[in-house]
Structures are given as structure tokens and as C-alpha cells.
């Protein structure tokens, strides 16, 4: 069984990833059950800084149909991230001074706890995205040629 719950594949295409961090999350019981069922989408999520704390916005955790009737689940509620103060301060400094953005890359289980891999990123321009795609295709072609299965050109 894989410990990965969800990946944000779009982030690697849209941003240059500078530095990665691991953060815990404050979750409710129904959210943990939904995460165990892999009912999470990180596609349009991002992280903001408010009152020197990090908050995850836009992550969609779909409630299970068997969720309790006495709670009202909010799939896209704002969730607090848990990190060491020094790490948070370093990230806040990078965001405010150097123009970085903080985005979630993945969510996974670690020793029974849900963790989020977040990263300091800079946005890519359109020509950077094209160069990345071109480089990836060249690497794929190069591996194919080295293997001996050169395709017709």
C-alpha cells in the first residue's frame, strides 16, 4: 500500500521548486476518514500566511457518505499547517522579500499522521514551460536511443 494520498502534478509544471518542507495539519475526524479513502484533490490549492501562521486553502476533501449526521462537513475549509517556528519564519521571509509563493506538492501518511509536502516556488513564464517540455522529451528520446530502439526521424 502506498503512503501517498494525493499529488499536485500541476505544481511541477507551473513553478520552479526552490525548497521543500514537511508540515502537519489540523484535521477533523471525518477528514481523516476521507483521506484514508483517498478522497482529496490538491489541484487548485495554495498556502497563505496569516498572523505568522500557515493556512492551506483550496484543498478539497470530499466527505464520505457515511459521515456523521450531527456535523456539517465543509470540503474546502481552511486548514492550519503545523511547522517549527524557525521554518515558518524562513518561509515568511522568502515570500515577503524574495517574491516566492508557497504551494502544496503532495499529501501522504507518515507514522499514521497526514503530512503535507509544501514548497517555496517561483512561477514559470510560458517560454520556461516550453523549455521544460522540450528537455523532458529530449531525455526520453535519448534514453530510447541508448536502449537501441531509435524511432524513425
TrEMBL record:
PROSITE patterns: SSRP. GO terms for biological process: trans-translation; trans-translation-dependent protein tagging. It is found in: Cytoplasm. Its main location: cytoplasm. This is SsrA-binding protein. Signal peptide: none annotated. Required for rescue of stalled ribosomes mediated by trans-translation. Binds to transfer-messenger RNA (tmRNA), required for stable association of tmRNA with ribosomes. tmRNA and SmpB together mimic tRNA shape, replacing the anticodon stem-loop with SmpB. tmRNA is encoded by the ssrA gene; the 2 termini fold to resemble tRNA(Ala) and it encodes a 'tag peptide', a short internal open reading frame. During trans-translation Ala-aminoacylated tmRNA acts like a tRNA, entering the A-site of stalled ribosomes, displacing the stalled mRNA. GO terms for molecular function: RNA binding. One of its GO terms (cellular component) is cytosol. Keywords: Cytoplasm, RNA-binding. The gene is smpB. NCBIfam families: PRK05422.1 (NF003843), smpB (TIGR00086). It holds the Pfam family SmpB. Belongs to the SmpB family. InterPro entries: SmpB, SsrA-bd_prot, SsrA-bd_prot_CS.
